[in-house]
Amino acid sequence: MIERRHVALPIRIGATFETQSGLQLNAPRIYGMLAKPDGARTAAILVHPSSNMMSHYLIDPLNARGLAVLALNTRYAGGDQVLIMEHAIQDVGAGVRYLREQGFDRVVLLGNSGGASLTAFYQAQAERITITHTPAGDPVDLVPAELPPADGLVLLAGHPGRSTLMTTYIDAAVVDERDPDRSDSTLDIYACGNAPPFPREFVARVRAAQRARSERITEWALERLRVLRARPGGARDEAFVVHRTYADPRFVDRTLDANDRAPGGNRGDTPQQANLSANNLARFTTLTSWLSQWSLLSNADGPDNLARTTVPVLQLEYTADAGIFPSDVARWSAAGGDRVENHRVVGASHYLYCLPDQLAQVADLTAAWCLAR
C-alpha cells in the first residue's frame, strides 16, 4: 500500500516582493506530496528550482520499488522570474527536516535536470555554510539547524547549473539587448549561411560572444542595482527581459559533444522558434534573480558545489539527452571523484517520454542505490 500525504511546510520569506500573494507573505509555505510505501525507512526528495515536482514521472516507479518519495516544490514553482538560489536551498532544508521528523533513517536528494545543481548547492551549504550574501549583495541568513545534511545525492540528467546553461544557450548573435531584431549573422547558428558541421573557429567565436553577452548583462545589472539603491527610498530590484536564450551550437551540430540525441535541443525539433519565443530561459527576470541564478557570479554552480560535499553520489547519464551533454557528465564526475557512481541509460532522452524500458532502468538503478546504502 502507498500512503500519499499532502505536505505544507513553513519557510522564512526571502524578500518583500518575492510573491504577490499577501497570504504567502504573511504565512509563507512550500508544498509537496509524500508518497510512502508501507515500511519504507529511506526517503528521496525530488526537487527542482522552479518546476512542479508533484506529478514527476519517477514517483510511482520508485514507490513500486520500496522507496518513499517527497515531491517538493520550492517557493518559485511555476515561475522563476524572481528566483534566488540562496533562498531555494532553504526550501530544500525544510523538506529534509520534515523527513527527519517523520522518522526516516536515510534521506537522499534526487536532482533531476536543474534540480542537480540545486541539490549540490544545498548539500555543500548543509555540510559547511559559507554563503552570507547573494551576488546582488543582499544578506542571506543560513542557519545550520535549518539545513540538515542529506545522506546522498542522485543526479538524473543533471545540468551543471543555470549560470552554465545560460552561458552556453544564450544567443551570441544579439547585438542590442533592447532590440532583439538586431543581429550579427556571422554569429547566428540558425542563419542559412552557417550550416553544420560548424568549423571549430566558428564555434570558438560563438562561445566567446555568448560569454561576453552574458557578462555585459551582468555588468549592466550590477550598475543598475547600484543606481536604484543609491536613490533615497528607491527600489531594491527591477524587472527586465532577456531575448533569444536558446541557441547552443550543439542543438544544430550533433558532432559537437556527440551522444545519441536527436537534433533540436529539449524544446522540440524547432530550436530556432524556441529561441525567439515569448517564454524561454530567463526571458522575464529581475536584476537580483539574474545575478543569483543566470549570471557567472552565481553561487549555485553544481560541480563546484559537489566538490565541497562528502556524501556518496549516483549519476545517471541519459545518452539521448539533447540538452545535457557528455562534457556536463564529465564535469560532475571530476568534481565528485571516487564518490560518484556513474551509469549510462542508453537511448534515454531528457524527459524519458514514451520510453518505458529506460524509465524502468532509471527507477531500478535509483531505488537500488538509495536502498542499499
Features:
single chain; alpha/beta; Rossmann fold; eight-stranded mixed β-sheet; two-stranded antiparallel ribbon; 12 helices; 16% strand; globular
Notes on the structure:
- This protein has 373 residues and is α/β, with parallel strands linked by helices.
- The chain folds into 2 domains: 2-161 and 300-372, Alpha/Beta hydrolase fold, catalytic domain (Rossmann fold); 165-294, no CATH class.
- 35% of the residues lie in helices and 16% in strands.
- The chain contains 12 helices and 10 strands.
- The chain starts with a strand and ends with a helix.
Structure in a nutshell:
With 373 residues, the chain is α/β, with parallel strands linked by helices. The chain is built from twelve helices and ten strands. The strands form two sheets. The protein has an eight-stranded mixed sheet, with helices on both faces. A two-stranded antiparallel ribbon has the order 7-8.
Indicate the CATH topology of the largest domain.
Rossmann fold
**Which CATH class of the largest domain is shown?**
Alpha Beta
Q: Give the proportion of residues in helices.
A: 25-40%
Task: Kindly provide the radius of gyration, computed on alpha-carbon positions and rounded to a whole number of angstroms.
Answer: 20 Å
Global outline: globular
Can you summarize the main beta sheet? 8 strands, mixed
Strand arrangement in the largest pleated sheet: 1-2-4-3-5-6-9-10
Structural class: alpha/beta
Task: Give the distance, in angstroms, between the N- and C-terminal Cα atoms.
Answer: 23 Å
Taken as a percent bin, the fraction of beta residues is 15-25%
What is the CATH-assigned architecture of the largest domain?
3-Layer(aba) Sandwich
Total domain count: 2
Arithmetic mean of pLDDT: 95
Order of helices and strands: EHEEHEHEHEHHEHHEHHEHEH
Number of helices: 12
User: Total number of β-strand segments?
Assistant: 10
Unreliable runs:
none
CATH evolutionary superfamily of the largest domain: Alpha/Beta hydrolase fold, catalytic domain
